[in-house]
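User: Modeling request: complex.
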Amino acid sequence: MTPEKDPISGRETTGHEWNGIKELNTPIPKAFRLWLWISIAVAALYWVFYPSFPYGADYLHGALGYSSREAVQVAVAEGAATRAEAFDIFETKDVNELAEMPELQAQFEGEIAVLYRDNCAACHGRDAKGQKGFPDLTDAHWLWSGSPEEIEYTLQVGINSAHEDTRIAEMPAIGRDEWLEQAEISDVIDYVLSLSGQEHDAEAAARGIDLFAENCASCHNGEGVGGYENGAPDLTDSAWLYGGTRADLRETLQHGRAGVMPAWSDRLSAAEIRKLTLYLLWQGQGDGNS
Amino acid sequence: MDHAKLERNGIAFALAILGVASIGGIIEIAPLFTIENTIEEAPGMRPYTPLELAGHNIYVREGCYACHSQMVRTLRSDVDRYGHFSLAAESMYDHPHQWGSKRTGPDLARVGQKYSDDWHVAHLAAPRAVVQGSVMPGYPFLSETRLDTRYFSEALTAQVRVGVPYTEEQIANAAKHAAWQADPEAEYEDDLIDAYGDKVQIRDFDGNPNMVSEMDALVAYLQVLGTLVDFDALNPEEIAR
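Assistant: Request completed. Predicted assembly structure:
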């Protein structure tokens, strides 16, 4: 069992022998070994320069005093400063002034679209055209008015949101809470269908007029045109947030609606909210009349 | 080399293996002995309510973690997109924690109150109906499955065993508290606030007032993620470590 020299390669064997077969004791190539020692040296250097092990009630801070949390706070502040400079105009002017400057669209729309897609597109769609339950932001129909400062305010505080100053708008569950009989609800539905010029039963609609005046007009207005002061939708147009068919209307009257727009003032900066307001104005007919 | 010596001394060789193999273990376990100063003081942080905890368990059961992380990393791109980087304190009551480094979907550490309940319900039922090009599978059965609250007290007890400070009263009333949190009338709001603080969100999360479903639990959980800590009240020096 003593190592012996292999006459052909000139290397030593391991000294083992299995049925006459012996094994050369060849070391791993030098380059591999060098790489291993370099890795170990780098690890040791890393321990010296960067935070490594817990140590009593503290930890080893390393010679450079590096902290990823400090570093990211610096990087984020730098980014915010760069943006504040590049988007200077959104920091200094209010939305009404900005809305008077159509030339901003060509300059900033591409950048703001990223912000829109990150935060708004999930509900309102990439094209801002909305979907059932989430309003179309490109048309002229606004629940809380399409004026720049009202859009900005909605973005800040939300609708039925957790924000303390939230806008509040709730369609009561008229059927479920038994405000009206089912037959009466049918009459109101026919009247509402008549308001938007849809097919309806004229007799039932006539019976619905008084019911509507007593129960619905306080929010939706006597003519059913809604109002910006309480976010009640216009029932005479062709825009329906939850659908305008007889079945959709029955569901709305039966179970009520209270759609939620989240508040963004804690999540986005004032300038970012201003940018998004402008973005929405550019997508559609902002003032609701044009 | 000295193969011969090592190979012929079994006990020394076994001890050497043990020594080398335990290095990894020591590096992983040692920080746990100083966990008190690893986790920041984070005002506002509280254990999950029973309904939120049930949502967490559904999240784990359905494997949401395979595509979604819950950890905003200390990278500018992460902080710019998702908000303040995650604190250790924010996952101190997560068993198991939901950190991760692989994202097929977005990070969810701060998704709470970013979208409406209606959106979550519509999105979980049929992701592509609301998000164009999404690759997320649908979970429509959650709305139809009644939440099984029979073993909620036991579920809270299990959390206590791994260090979550639920009180006797919270454990005893777990099933009741879950039902109260999803009550559209919020009849027991005061009792829930007494038990879990004033940030507890009480409403009918899934849009079906007649049943407390698994959808209620999951949406209640998603809506609380990242919303508990009061970031203005943090000690910036401690947070910067």
